[in-house]
Design brief:
By secondary structure, the protein is an alpha/beta fold. It is 24% helix and 28% strand. The protein has two domains: 76 residues, Urease, subunit C, domain 1 (Roll); 286 residues, TIM Barrel (Alpha-Beta Barrel), CATH 3.20.20. Strands 8-11-12-13-14-15-16-17 form an eight-stranded parallel sheet, with helices on both faces. Strands 3-2-7-21-22-23 form a six-stranded mixed sheet, with no helix packed on it.
């Protein structure tokens, strides 16, 4: 048993002071009895304590990428993300050859559970079932129509699929998947769908939008596109709050429109938590300078955003309160996946982060074990 004392504990809709958080692999209790006997005591020294951050969209970090398809790459990403407060994540693939995707999925199936840092919750399949006209940093040469053949052996691992609902075969694919694999979250993204086509996708069961505003039809007052459909529907969405992919005023707009349906992601590539320089993403050359990752033609190529920086940006540039900001990286993504994480509730997994008023990470705890301490 462990106990965190002298903390500002983010619990449900309030911030508790003068309380003690007890946990082992799960949250045991939060009590105003500050005595912590017969257990390991962690002194937060007045810092904030919340559930660990969850990233539903991350390609890599620390110089490694999910598409490297090696156990070492998964371990590197898992270990590196701890310093950003992330305790669990969806390992996100790219639009590449069927062979490359299969190798990455096979690697996940064989080795995801053996990482020692942040937990891997499963796979976010970003492509190849997208619209070539909105491929963004995805390699358009490998875009293809939706097919079960590519992914059927890995349906236990796949938790989210980004898909363009307007492409041929999308309707039958989504409906089959919703019937056979209801645990999978379908997200509209890398799509040229109209407002009407996107709303139709929501009727099939699609319930999320990937990096809203990016790689999709823009909002226009006569053609509101995907953004308009998301704003008009009870679906969730995520944003890359790095001030590169989205302007601060847009972040405020999304918050006002979606509230608790807003989820923060990083979309980080292998340069995450690394120095500026030359990298690759999906086999394509990427230059990283001044917090911006771009392909040779200037297309944004994922991000180098850290999750704690995303929270800091939302707190600084929007009207979101501290609890709302943290919920967008904890409670909201956990609820999206239907897992008992993301809240400091009794019986929930003891994934915990301690951070200061600037969102600098002090301690990261995964399943009750201290995995990072600065």
């Amino acid at each position: 048993m462990k106990a965190i004392v002298n903390a500002k504990i983010l619990h449900e809709e309030t911030i508790l002071e003068g309380c003690t958080l007890f946990f082992d692999t799960q949250i045991v209790k939060i009590t105003d009895d500050v005595t912590a006997q017969n257990c390991e005591v962690i002194d937060a020294k007045g810092a904030y304590v919340s559930s660990g951050f969850i990233d539903l969209h991350v390609h890599g970090s620390g110089g490694a990428d999910v598409m490297d398809a090696s156990p070492a790459a998964l371990e590197t990403i898992s270990a590196t993300l701890l310093q950003t407060g992330v305790t669990s994540f969806l390992a996100t693939t790219m639009t590449m050859s069927n062979e490359a995707i299969d190798k990455a999925l096979q690697n996940m199936q064989d080795h995801a559970k053996s990482v020692t840092g942040a937990n891997i919750l499963g796979v976010h399949l970003e492509g190849p079932f997208i619209n070539v006209s909105r491929h963004g940093a995805q390699n358009k040469d490998y875009v293809q129509a939706p097919t079960m053949a590519l992914i059927e052996p890995y349906m236990q691992e796949i938790k989210m699929i980004t898909l363009a609902p307007e492409v041929e075969g999308a309707e039958a694919f989504v409906k089959h998947m919703m019937s056979s694999y209801p645990h999978v979250v379908f997200s509209v993204g890398h799509s040229d769908a109209s407002y009407e086509e996107c709303k139709e996708g929501f009727r099939w069961g699609m319930s999320h939008a990937t990096h809203l505003f990016n790689a999709m039809t823009p909002y226009h007052h006569r053609s509101p596109g995907i953004v308009g459909a998301v704003f008009d529907s009870d679906v969730s969405c995520d944003v890359i709050a790095d001030l590169v992919h989205t302007h601060p005023s847009v972040l405020e707009l999304v918050y006002r429109m979606k509230k608790e349906k807003l989820i923060l992601i990083t979309d980080a590539m292998r340069a995450g938590c690394m120095k500026c320089g030359s990298y690759d993403l999906g086999g394509q050359h990427v230059e990283v300078q001044d917090g911006k990752a771009v392909l040779e033609d200037g297309t944004l190529a994922g991000s180098v955003l850290k999750m704690n920086e995303a929270l800091s940006n939302m707190r600084q540039y929007t009207s979101m309160g501290l609890l709302e900001v943290v919920n967008a990286a904890t409670k909201a993504p956990a609820q999206k996946l239907g897992i008992k994480k993301g809240e400091l509730k009794v019986g929930y997994d003891a994934d915990i982060v301690i951070f200061d008023e600037n969102f600098s990470i002090i301690t990261t705890i995964v399943m009750g074990e201290i995995k990072y301490a600065r």
